[in-house]
Predict the structure.
Amino acid sequence: MSDIPLPLFSELNLSPALLKVIKEIGYETPSPIQAATIPLLLDNRDVLGQAQTGTGKTAAFALPILSRIDIKQHTPQALVLAPTRELAIQVAEAFQTYAAHIKDFHVLPIYGGQSYGPQLSALRRGVHVVVGTPGRVIDHLDKGSLDLSKLKTLVLDEADEMLRMGFIDDVEQILQKTPATRQTALFSATMPSAIKRIAKTYLREPAEVTVAAKTGTADNIRQRYWMVSGMQKLDALTRILEAEPFDGMIIFARTKLGTEELAGKLNARGFAATAINGDMQQAQRERTIQQL
Ligand code: AMP
């Protein structure tokens, strides 16, 4: 996908309210998953997306949903199922951000562990988008407090995580309780057979979109690891420095203090080492590197 030139947001047929907010937030170009998914969802297609967090998948489904929202309809038009309360809140916040110029838009996160009161009154007042964990969504369906009869779009976010956490029966129950005419988008980092079965059973001729993880290892990098306990770390590192031929080396440490302690100890062992960390000014960092 990387060799296909990415379109501009303005070429994706999103509503003016969304183009405005995208500009304000500072997104310059759509990410690959957004470029592929936004036109499909706007076109009412089902989507099976293989993508991880960090690829921009939230906006890939939130922007087209918002672009087609009917602000006058107060029963939920879109439901996003997420594996955890944290993700549900994060996705609801993303909807809120992207809807900054859509007047009277309401999104509601619903998840277990929170009292029903605020969720019930928000649902009664009317919401356009619900983002929920499967268990709590089922609870609301059983109580009759969540009306999915007018649902237009259902998103399963991180479907493999929902499977891993034992939610798959709940997800399937919810799928069965939504209108057959709904549009469905399923996103998953991996595609185990149970997820493929769900996709095959509940998605209508889905367009398949696969996006490589944003943070991969470059082909010319080999990764190795050596398990040592804390006490032996310095000796292990010294062995590596003595055994591996190198011109220069970058060593990452967890804390700022850690960088300084390690540089001091390496100097004491005869290696020219220096610490770089966020407490130093950029110019100072550059000077430090040049001095090595
Ligand atoms: P996600 O994969 O949905 O968790 O998004 C990862 C991060 O990328 C979030 O912080 C988004 O705000 C950001 N993001 C999403 N789309 C874009 C874009 N087109 N340009 C720049 N940043 C983006």
